[in-house]
Design goal:
The chain has about 280 residues and is α/β, with parallel strands linked by helices. The protein folds into two domains: about 5-175, P-loop containing nucleotide triphosphate hydrolases (Rossmann fold, 3-Layer(aba) Sandwich); about 205-270, Conserved Hypothetical Protein Ylqf, Chain: A, domain 2 (Orthogonal Bundle), CATH 1.10.1580. About 45% of the residues lie in helices and about 10% in strands. It contains twelve helices and six strands. It has helices at about 5, 10-25, 45-50, 70-80, 100-105, 110-115, 135-145, 185-195, 205-220, 220-230, 235-245, 260-270, and strands at about 30-35, 55-60, 85-90, 125-130, 165, 170-175. The protein has a six-stranded mixed β-sheet, sandwiched between helices. Strand 1 (about 30-35), helix 3 and strand 2 form a beta-alpha-beta unit. Helix 11 crosses helix 12. The chain starts with a helix and ends in a 14-residue tail after the last helix. The model is unreliable at about 1-5 and about 150-160 (pLDDT under 50).
Length: about 280
């Protein structure tokens, strides 16, 4: 299968978004980079980092409860050793979201102190929130603003334009659409983004996605698979049979409904039915 050809997705509005981020970055005091806790590496857009890297950055690991905490903590330590501030959160439930303001003030402490020493009234800090599609930016913004300030949906590419949102008297935030990058150097990144929903399901062949997910889970979370589906397969065809039998996913005359089986697996992955999962792994 031609993996490289299948998983390139860079709609025109994303190219426009990159250009607008470049135009606005010098106005920012702080950048919030929102990552998917299941994909601490694959959801880190290198093109965005090139643009914002000279600004103070906080890495926010969203959907923390969907991740394998052991591997998530390893990744957070990895980024902290590179000089980033980190915080794991869950925008949907609000867990740890209230800590973002305090951490932002810690990051900007020197700037705040300089303004006080000069007797100046500190203007509202300008922040920008960036990340890949469907990572939870709009949900987080609504939590921070304590109102529905941004449109949300459980599909990638909902936010199409930038908008300024007042979070408090101290912070103003520029929301930006989710941005991928034109080419994935490591094709696993494309699979990871597709499995968790950052890329629309129609972009990648669903059979290929199923094969990748089963292979990864069999290698790293075998017990979880057995607990969820009641048996372990030794081949892809066996896995189709096992999940179809467990979920009653059949067409006429007991023919396996492969499309439904694939949807069952992706739904279980995305909704924590297999427990916390992390698809990116640090070398030991």
């Amino acid at each position: 299968m031609n993996k490289a050809k299948q998983i390139q997705w860079f709609p025109g509005h994303m190219f426009k978004s990159l250009r607008e981020i470049k135009e606005k970055i010098n106005l920012m005091d702080l950048v919030l980079v929102l990552l998917d806790s299941r994909l601490p590496d694959s959801s880190m857009n290198p093109e965005l980092l090139k643009i914002v890297g000279h600004k103070p950055i906080i890495l926010l690991f969203n959907k923390m409860d969907l991740a394998d905490q052991f591997h998530l903590n390893r990744w957070m330590k990895y980024y902290e050793e590179k000089g980033y501030y980190t915080l794991k959160i869950d925008a949907q439930s609000g867990k740890n979201v209230q800590r973002i303001h305090k951490l932002s003030e810690e990051v900007l402490k020197d700037k705040i102190d300089r303004a006080r020493q000069k007797g100046l009234k500190q203007r509202a800090f300008r922040t920008m929130i960036i990340g890949v599609p469907n990572v939870g930016k709009s949900t987080l913004i609504n939590r921070l603003a304590q109102k529905k300030a941004a449109k949300t949906a459980n599909t990638p590419g909902v936010t199409k334009a930038q908008q300024w949102i007042k979070l408090s008297d101290q912070f103003e935030l520029l929301d930006t659409p989710g941005v991928l990058w034109p080419k994935f150097d490591d094709q696993k990144i494309g699979y990871h983004l597709a499995i968790t929903g950052a890329i629309k399901d129609s972009i990648l062949p669903d059979y290929d996605l199923f094969v990748y997910a089963i292979d990864f889970l069999s290698e790293n979370y075998q017990k979880r698979l057995e607990e969820r589906y009641g048996a372990l397969g030794t081949s892809i065809s066996e896995w189709f049979e096992i999940i179809a039998s467990k979920r009653g996913a059949y067409l006429k005359e007991k023919e396996i409904d492969e499309t439904r089986v694939i949807q069952v697996l992706l739904h279980d992955i995305r909704n924590n039915h297999l427990g916390g999962l992390t698809f990116d792994r640090l070398d030991v």
